[in-house]
Amino acid sequence: MKRPSPSDPRIQRSLEGMLSPEEEQAFQAEVVRDPALRASYVDQLWLHATLRAEADRLPRLLEDLPEAPPARSALFVRLAWAASLAACVALVLVALSRRSDPAGPVVATLARTENATWAGSTLPTAERSELRRGTLSLLQGIATVRFASGAEVTIEAPTTLELLDAMHCRLVEGSVTADVPESAHGFTIDTPDLKVVDLGTRFGVTAGAAGDSHVFVFEGEVTLNKPDGEKLRHLTEGRTFHVNSGMVAPSREPSRLTQEQTPDGWTAIPTSFGRGQDTFVRRGFEKDEGAAPLLMVKHSDLPLSRKNERRAFLTFDLSAVRPREIQNAELVLDPEPSGLGFSAMVPDSHFAVYGVTDETGETWTERELRWETAPAMSDAGLDPALTRRLAEFSIPRGGAGGSLTVRGDALAEFLREDTNGRVTLVLVRETGETDPSGLVHAFASKEHPSARPPTLRIR
Known about the structure:
Elements: H1 9-15, H2 21-33, H3 35-53, H4 58-63, H5 74-97, E1 108-118, E2 130-131, E3 134-147, E4 152-165, E5 168-179, E6 188-191, E7 194-198, E8 202-207, E9 213-219, E10 221-225, E11 231-236, E12 240-243, E13 260-261, E14 267-270, E15 277-282, E16 294-297, E17 310-317, E18 329-333, E19 335-336, E20 349-356, E21 377-378, E22 381-382, E23 387-395, E24 404-407, H6 409-416, E25 422-429, E26 441-444, E27 455-458
Parallel strand pairs: 5-6
Antiparallel strand pairs: 1-2, 1-3, 3-4, 4-5, 5-8, 6-7, 7-10, 8-9, 9-12, 10-11, 13-14, 14-27, 15-17, 16-26, 17-25, 18-24, 18-27, 19-26, 20-23, 20-25, 21-22
Helix pairs in contact: 2-3
């Protein structure tokens, strides 16, 4: 595939708001996938933001130039304009060297980063950079911001955080954990539907842009207020609180898609095609997860009474293909933020994909599936006599940074053995954790409003 030019005209059109919603969505997805385009986009974003910020100052350079005497030649005029232009360029370069930090006090420092990829930030993103008021937007990885008050906030991708002052920030969307010393009591994190005020503690906050916030207190205590400042409640160590403003649209069964044939000979079969299904089960819970937009996956090393095990089940309809003719196969998954737990609490996580070999267990339905009734499941987990390990993949702390493609000869061989026109795969996280607030990983289901459903690609 031909890589876009660094001068891709879509960048400027995007910055000027000239792309249609569909074009903008496709362009932003490509920015996330393509490092070269992303770097060019970020550079032009800095320039665009700086010129807007300095718009009022640039004309003054021309106004301050002395008027050329009438007797002077046209050469003098040209030289004056050249000097003015050079001054303007110098001003822009100085502003760019400050990376669009507006005049104002330094409120924080970007203390540490781990596998970090940024896009859309209005603040510097190099380690040890001084940060003024502005926005950090982390696409992948983990980063720690040390505020001048002493509070440390760890950002887990994908997250957008707005720095307001040394005692105040706003979580636009994503997940953060905060470690607040006594010197910074009163440190506040806003979300779209909460104000979290520290009382000397270590806590975590997750938020959706449309309003859906969770607060977890690891140590100490916090006060929760409504956005207008009205006190909501007091939260102490070990407690959690969830508030949903009601702005999130409920999930629903999507329209059934068709399988897609690509020019290179691959056939894409999503879980939303034909008799396809996807859902997850959770140990000890009877909640109906059939219409959930996310497929939750988690493994814990805590005692059985405190385990929070989750498995995802995917069924693909193969009735329109000839299984015995399959040569290659791959599974494509879109990781999504779960809003449950924190990446900082778990190491890089290893996953496995299993195939259910017992075809009689493939009559399950999304709304009726439970841990105890799921295909090839026992109280201890997957029954090795009824499953086969097909592939593995890993997700680093801070996210995968885009879609995951899982390949393996065992996957293609498993599909070739199908006899009833559909196959069921199980997603299992093998990396455990010992912290109750550890991360629940999630992948887009066919009910997700914008992301791609789990897709099986065969050739």
